[in-house]
Amino acid sequence: MKRILIVQIGGTIAGGYENDQLVYGGGPRELIGKYLSKAGIGTNTLDIVPSDPNIQIDFTIDYDVLFFKNSTEVTDDDRLKIAAYLQAVNYDQIIVLYGNNPESYFRTEKYVKEVVKRKTIVFVGSKKPFDVYFSDAPIFLGMAITMVQLKEPGVYHVINF
């Protein structure tokens, strides 16, 4: 069975409402976990039981938090930590919840491409947090889950810049 890791870095995609305030990527670490757990993704694994017995689910999803930063605040030291973490974890398919700042993303992508080998990594970001009505976050996360399973090893993105 394939194992996919979703790792939290920060960004708008991880935002939401807390105490009636809109909080973006720098909010509490539990916020994104709350929304992923609604989809069955928690600190353990995704457990899907299809209603059609002909449908086979051949993957599990685990979740971890590396940082909780706005992408405009990610430093080069952070980028080194991200790249080292992604290379070190025992997963070949990784989704990175990141911000949608193009300059920050492309700098991070460069570090990751230099360090991480033989893994499929998909960065995902959105214009609106999970918790906002008509958010683009759930569809982008779904696209990332699909992409990480279909693409050859390399670094990709599903981000609404």
Q: Can you describe this structure in just a few lines?
A:
The protein has 161 residues and is an alpha/beta fold. The protein is 31% helix and 27% strand.
Question: What report would you give on this structure?
Answer:
The chain has 4 helices and 7 strands. Strand 5, helix 3 and strand 6 form a beta-alpha-beta unit. It has a single domain (2-159), classed as L-asparaginase, N-terminal domain (Rossmann fold, 3-Layer(aba) Sandwich), CATH 3.40.50.1170. The protein is α/β, with parallel strands linked by helices. It has a 5-stranded parallel β-sheet with strand order 4-1-5-6-7. The chain has a two-stranded antiparallel ribbon with strand order 2-3.
Secondary structure blueprint with pairings:
Blueprint: E1 2-10, E2 16-18, E3 21-23, H1 30-38, E4 59-69, H2 76-88, E5 93-97, H3 102-115, E6 120-125, H4 137-150, E7 154-159
Parallel strand pairs: 1-4, 1-5, 5-6, 6-7
Antiparallel strand pairs: 2-3
Helix pairs in contact: 2-3
Sum up the structure in keywords.
alpha/beta; two-stranded antiparallel sheet; 161 residues; globular; Rossmann fold; 4 helices
Main sheet strand line-up = 4-1-5-6-7
Uncertain residue segments = none
CATH classification, class level? Alpha Beta
> What general form does the structure show?
globular
Number of helices: 4
| Largest β-sheet summary | 5 strands, parallel
Q: Supply the number of structural domains.
A: 1
Secondary-structure content class: alpha/beta
Structural Rg: 15 Å
Please report the total strand number as a whole number: 7
Q: Helix coverage percent of residues?
A: 25-40%
Beta-strand residue percentage: 25-35%
Instruction: Please provide the ordered H/E string of secondary-structure elements.
Output: EEEHEHEHEHE
Assembly classification = single chain
Mean pLDDT: 82
CATH topology grouping: Rossmann fold
